């Protein structure tokens, strides 16, 4: 059986005759964290919306586990920079929303959610309202809701960019920890080079007008990265390479 | 933690001003500056309230019943209209401008027609209250529905939420603030409409009582009924505030922070 979960094949998109994406192809294996890196306006979010099925593409296909899901929404779960938590629902109520929408009764759904709150570092917050939580906790709650939607692929569109530097770093570490405990494949859309290098197994760099996949970088296995990967020459080399690609665009 | 007493601060300043006004009023009448038959003293008003209490309560009960029934139906109609206007764009475009125009018709002008059509009982009063209260509710609820973040609606849609579920889980709770803002307006409108409709024609109610004591030049009783109507409105407002606190528990939780 193929390990490929998501395949984007030759996707192109124009807005008002203006090509935005040209012949984008990428693949994501089961369990991988793949980053899609590009500057603002590079069509990252357009591609995100095409994969999520929220936007139609002009050419190309989106395949999920070998099946053509081009233009179909609800096949992958996604999360945006805004947490989109409902202020009038408790954390348990927010996180359990995908279960409730699938007709599960409230009590059963809340019971199911409790152990996950612990895994996601939200133990004890179930009866609290989002406004009482810090930005990092809210993002974790939003991520848990995304996960409980129960789709194998999660698309994250700059999920941590509204957080301060330290919280963001903690969230990166936390995400790498939690991803080992749950079965989830991630496509991370970001403009943050450091974030992509810290989180991803592979990085696709989007550059040019219209945007193409300028390069695909395979990062060293996580076990070989060591404690301070961000301070190593390897990390800096990758960063230099990405910067030159993005600046040349 | 949850049961902690909420610290209620009472603002005494308006009560002080009110007390001073009443004292001044009492003095003006007691010292004969204004003749008593034209302006009764506050004490006369209280006396009138007490001596006529049976009649006042009986009429108040009628007015209150009309107000509550009319308000309830008006609210339900307003919410229903907001929901269908939110759901069907063409209905919004077709009905909304007409609703706005309909509000320029003065209620005092429709009241006599309603009385002639529907008689002297409760029905024309209730209908008038419905006509005046559904509008603020419909407009505000619609504004609340439309303020929903489109990204949130898209997320709900991808999670497989039907329109009905989006309404229940997102739009209705989100519009609660708008709803209560409109309910405060609707409540005052409702009491006023009830009294106005009773003035125009009827057998019972505070408005009817008012026209009777007016014809008798009983100023003390006229003031008494005004005081009673004010108290009734205030009580209904208090009820609305209580309802809001009960239905919006997240507001309390946040305020405690």
By DSSP (H or I, 4+ residues per run), the number of helices of chain A equals: 8
Strand percentage of chain A lies at 25-35%
CATH topology of the largest domain in chain A: Rossmann fold
Please tell me the total number of domains of chain A: 2
Basic shape of chain B: globular
Q: What is the subunit organization of this protein?
A: heterodimer
- What is the rounded Rg of chain B? 23 Å
Helix content of chain B: over 70%
Topology, pairings included?
The complex is a heterodimer of chains A (about 250) and B (about 260).
Chain A: E1 4-15, E2 18-29, E3 33-37, H1 44-51, E4 59-64, E5 67-68, E6 77-79, H2 91-95, H3 97-101, H4 106-119, H5 135-148, E7 153-157, H6 165-181, E8 185-190, H7 193-199, E9 202-207, E10 212-218, H8 233-248
Parallel strand pairs in A: 3-8, 3-9, 6-7, 7-8
Antiparallel strand pairs in A: 1-2, 1-4, 4-5, 9-10
Chain B: H1 13-30, H2 42-51, H3 53-87, H4 89-102, H5 107-118, H6 123-146, H7 150-158, H8 163-174, H9 176-200, H10 206-215, H11 219-247, H12 249-255
Helix pairs in contact in B: 2-11, 3-4, 3-6, 3-9, 3-10, 5-6, 5-9, 6-9, 9-10, 9-11, 10-11
In words, what does this structure look like?
The complex is a heterodimer of chains A (249) and B (257). Chain A has 249 residues and is an alpha/beta fold. Helix content of chain A is 35%, strand content 26%. In chain A, a hairpin with a 2-residue loop joins β1 (4-15) and β2. With 257 residues, chain B is mainly alpha-helical. Chain B has one domain (53-250): MetI-like (MetI-like fold, Orthogonal Bundle), CATH 1.10.3720.10. Chain B contains 12 helices and no strands. In chain B, α3 (53-87) crosses α9, α3 packs across α10 (206-215) and α9 (176-200) runs parallel beside α10. In chain B, 33% of the residues are buried. The model of chain B has no long low-confidence stretch (mean pLDDT 90). Chain A binds chain B through residues 52-54, 73-74, 77-78, 80, 82, 84, 86-90, 97-98, 100-102, 128-129, 131-132, 149, and chain B through 149, 151-152, 154-161, 165, 169-170, 173-174, 176, 248, 250, 253-254, 257.
């Amino acid at each position: 059986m193929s390990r490929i979960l998501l395949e984007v094949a030759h996707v192109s998109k124009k807005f008002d005759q203006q090509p935005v994406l040209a012949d984008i192809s990428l693949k994501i294996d089961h369990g991988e964290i793949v980053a899609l890196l590009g500057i603002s306006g590079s069509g990252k979010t357009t591609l995100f919306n095409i994969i999520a099925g929220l936007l139609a593409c002009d050419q190309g296909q989106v395949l999920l586990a070998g099946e053509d899901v081009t233009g179909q929404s609800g096949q992958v779960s996604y999360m945006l920079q805004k947490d989109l938590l409902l202020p009038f629902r408790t954390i348990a109520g927010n996180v359990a929303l995908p279960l409730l929408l699938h007709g599960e009764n409230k009590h059963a759904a809340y019971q199911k959610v409790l152990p996950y709150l612990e895994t996601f570092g939200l133990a004890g917050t179930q009866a609290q309202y989002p406004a009482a939580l810090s930005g990092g906790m809210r993002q974790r709650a939003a991520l848990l809701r995304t996960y409980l939607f129960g789709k194998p692929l999660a698309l994250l569109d700059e999920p941590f960019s509204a957080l301060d530097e330290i919280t963001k770093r903690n969230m990166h570490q936390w995400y790498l920890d939690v991803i080992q405990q749950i079965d989830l494949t991630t496509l991370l859309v970001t403009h943050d080079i450091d974030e992509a290098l810290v989180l991803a197994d592979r990085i696709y760099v989007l550059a040019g007008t219209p945007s193409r996949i300028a390069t695909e970088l395979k990062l060293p296995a996580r076990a070989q990265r060591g404690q301070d990967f961000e301070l190593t020459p390897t990390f800096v080399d990758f960063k230099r390479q990405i910067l030159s690609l993005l600046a040349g665009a | 933690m949850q049961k902690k007493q909420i610290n209620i601060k009472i603002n005494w300043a308006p009560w002080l001003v009110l007390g001073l006004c009443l004292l001044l009023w009492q003095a003006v009448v007691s010292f004969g500056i204004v003749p008593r038959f034209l302006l009764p003293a506050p004490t006369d008003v209280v006396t009138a309230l007490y001596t006529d209490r049976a009649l006042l309560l009986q009429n108040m009960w009628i007015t209150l019943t009309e107000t509550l029934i009319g308000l309830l139906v008006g609210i339900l109609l307003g919410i229903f209209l907001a929901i269908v206007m939110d759901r069907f764009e063409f209905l919004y475009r077709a009905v909304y401008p007409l609703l706005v125009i309909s509000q320029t018709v003065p209620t005092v002008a429709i009241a006599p027609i309603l009385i002639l059509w529907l008689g002297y009982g409760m029905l024309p009063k209730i209908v008038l209250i419905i006509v005046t209260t559904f509008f603020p509710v419909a407009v505000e609820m619609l504004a609340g529905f439309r303020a929903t973040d489109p990204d949130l609606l898209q997320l709900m849609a991808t999670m497989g939420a039907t329109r009905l579920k989006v309404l229940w889980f997102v739009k209705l709770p989100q519009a609660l603030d708008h709803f209560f803002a409109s309910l405060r307006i609707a409540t005052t409108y409702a009491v006023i409409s009830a009294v106005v409709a009773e003035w125009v024609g009827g057998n019972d109610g505070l408005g009817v009582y008012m026209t009777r004591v007016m014809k008798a030049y009983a100023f003390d009783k006229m003031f008494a009924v005004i005081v009673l109507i004010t108290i009734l409105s205030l009580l209904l407002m208090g009820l609305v505030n209580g309802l809001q606190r009960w239905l919006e528990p997240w507001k309390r939780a946040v305020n405690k922070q």
